[in-house]
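Weekly sync, protein design subgroup
Attendees: M.S., D.O., the rotation student, P.L. (late)

Item 1: inverse folding check
M.S. brought a backbone from last month's batch and wanted to see whether the design step gives back something sensible before we order anything. D.O. pointed out we never logged the input encoding, so this time it goes straight into the notes. Structure tokens as presented (372 positions):
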């Protein structure tokens, strides 16, 4: 017999699957270039949906774990929020306290994932540019990329929760990983990154074990072709040929590979605000669902947020330190949310208000050299 948690999780996944199917097969059935207005509208839609779910947790969060008595509540709290003070003489107040804790943890996790994903979006932009993907196909690739990211998050989060439950010292390891990631992001914040397509690990692997068709064929991931020398030629219907993967499918897999690397930072970061795998999963999924719209919005205004990477490095440092000291100092969930919001707001405000220092042009550089 399924537990309440499993049933709720199945219902949540069915709901998310329904949204994705509607999005992929109806709303974005026709490939087109997404405008800033459209991207902004859908960004607001996804944020509204995420906030609506937080309202559900605020009032009915106990339904996730099927809490019906104080004993149920105590059992759940001992696993996911042992520091929370509960009153055995007032079940309703204790239940409300846990609901509110779930909601704050969910919002903190959502903001962490959303903020950290900005760096991943920059990587996606580089991948599209490096592979020469047409901007009309961005949606198609991102849809499948997001679907793959959801599956990866499901596996990583619940596997991570099981490991943490058995070996709680893993949180210390997560802390060191995040502190190092913070240092690395700060060090490379102004570095111009690029992708070497020919030597990318995923491209080398696919080229070695699969037939890779050298050209894009619309929005097709697979084509039938015959090999002629070092090149491939498409075959008509009814003609047998080699099943080849197209550069568009290679792009999807490279994006999945980059998301896999990104998950090693983002998932430990969200576990810093909640040990409840369901809360972590919900926050991750709602953040990921809005990534595609956020991508098109960010692509148009990416150069405006010069200090966002600095803010992300500060956020990673805070989260890493929080994990390292969690055995000795418990930072309140509300304070964690306030700090996350403060870092995000300050980095965005600084980017918008502080004007960049103009680089000297060639004539000015020549004058400076002559004066020297």
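Designed sequence read out in the meeting:
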């Amino acid at each position: 017999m399924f537990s309440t948690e499993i049933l709720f999780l199945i219902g949540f996944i069915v709901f998310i699957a329904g949204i994705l199917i509607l999005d992929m097969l109806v709303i974005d059935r026709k490939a087109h270039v997404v405008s800033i207005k459209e991207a902004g509208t859908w960004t607001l839609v996804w944020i509204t949906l995420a906030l609506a779910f937080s309202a559900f947790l605020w009032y009915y969060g106990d339904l996730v774990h099927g809490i019906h008595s104080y004993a149920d509540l105590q059992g759940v709290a001992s696993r996911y929020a042992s520091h929370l003070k509960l009153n055995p003489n007032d079940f309703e107040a204790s239940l409300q306290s846990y609901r509110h804790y779930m909601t704050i943890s969910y919002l903190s996790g959502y903001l962490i994932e959303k903020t950290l994903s900005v760096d991943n979006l920059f990587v996606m932009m580089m991948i599209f540019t490096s592979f020469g993907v047409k901007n009309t196909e961005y949606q198609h690739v991102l849809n499948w990329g997001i679907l793959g990211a959801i599956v990866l998050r499901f596996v990583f989060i619940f596997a991570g929760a099981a490991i943490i439950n058995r070996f709680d010292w893993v949180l210390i390891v997560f802390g060191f990983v995040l502190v190092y990631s913070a240092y690395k992001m700060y060090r490379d914040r102004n570095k111009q990154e690029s992708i070497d397509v020919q030597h990318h690990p995923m491209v080398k692997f696919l080229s070695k074990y699969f037939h890779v068709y050298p050209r894009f064929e619309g929005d097709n991931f697979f084509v039938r072709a015959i090999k002629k020398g070092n090149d491939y030629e498409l075959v008509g219907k009814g003609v047998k040929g080699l099943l080849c993967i197209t550069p568009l499918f290679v792009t999807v897999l490279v994006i999945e590979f980059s998301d896999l690397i990104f998950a090693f930072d983002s998932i430990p970061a969200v576990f810093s605000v909640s040990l409840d795998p369901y809360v972590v999963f919900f926050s991750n999924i709602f953040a990921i669902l809005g990534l595609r719209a956020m991508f098109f919005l960010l692509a148009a205004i990416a150069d405006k947020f010069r200090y966002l990477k600095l803010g992300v490095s500060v956020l990673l440092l805070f989260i890493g330190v929080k994990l390292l000291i969690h055995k000795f100092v418990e930072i309140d969930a509300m304070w964690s949310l306030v700090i996350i919001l403060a870092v995000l707001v300050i980095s965005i405000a600084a980017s918008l208000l502080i004007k960049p220092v103009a680089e000297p042009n060639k004539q000015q550089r020549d004058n400076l050299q002559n004066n020297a």
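Discussion: Residues 4-189+265-355 form one domain. The chain has a mean pLDDT of 82.
Action: P.L. to compare against the previous round before Friday.
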